[in-house]
Amino acid sequence: MRNSLTQIAPEVANALEKCQGVVALESTLISHGLPWPTNLETALASEEAVRKSKAVPATIAVLKGRLTVGLSHSEIEALANNKDIAKVSVRDLPVLMARRADGATTVASTLMIAHRAGIRVMATGGIGGVHRDAFSGDSPTLDISADLPVLARTPVILVCSGAKSILDLRATREWLETHGVTVLGFRTDEFPGFYTTHTGLRVDARTNSIAEIVEIARARWSLELEGAILVGNPPPADLALPAELIETHLREATAQMEHERVSGKDVTPFLLSRLQQATEGKATRLNSALIIANAALAGEVAAALAQHAE
Ligand code: PSU
Ligand code: MN
After folding, report:
1. Taking the model in full, what pTM does it have?
2. Which of 11, 17, 18, 26 does the annotation list as catalytic?
3. I need a labelling partner for 63 at 20 to 30 A (CA). Which of 88, 168, 169, 226 fits?
4. How far is the CA of 209 from the centre of ligand 2 (A)?
């Protein structure tokens, strides 16, 4: 345990001590990304998938102000049931800590907490990124997810299905390049678009092998570069949705969002839930399946990394 503000579950602490594979999992997708009861089922299935891959899952959240690494099943259930829980990015952590409050962590804050705890692999659904209205329109919002700058400074492997097409994917991809994040495609040449496999955007390198991901990570860490390795895992082919369909629903959702003056941290949950409703659950099923698949792949990466531990 680094300090009393961080609480590491005994199983996770033990695995870290023995240099076994550990995978960090975020909790905002439980509280704000998926509807009940899919959120609980997905969180538990993700943990199970990590275990099947021979690694130890560590779902991360803030509980009573403590950065908690490795939630129990009942803690996950409480999170999944609590509609009012705060969505917590890095900037919010000090406030929650001081107030001994609860919160669900985004990719940004989960990455940061995982890294402090000594965890080197994390899984999520999709990362936050540059929003479509960030630099355009009458009044650019400058809405860029804090996930991006944290990825630029945290040396962790993050397995995800790219970024959602609710974002400006091209700008998000460029941002990662500018800031030196290594973007790999697992069995794909394209940066996945969460709902879709094909975005027309390139990854830095395609890899078909877990062993090579581990080698690339070791090489990167040997340079002592700050910043992450992003492993883009395409969504399951049988559940992927046509880009045009997403685009149509997204246009409606964006108009509604402007009408309701949704902004800031509420933007991503709002758009996600609108798409889930509009696709009658198809987006939810896909979202859940890809999160679980990413957890399984991250587990394999973490287990392989542990085998090569010096
Ligand atoms: N991707 C998902 N579901 C989610 C999110 C991403 O499939 O719920 C969450 C993640 O926690 C991510 C956050 O870090 O949305 C980004 O929010 P924002 O755009 O406000 O930074
Ligand atoms: Mn934002």
Report:
1. 0.96
2. 26
3. 226
4. 34
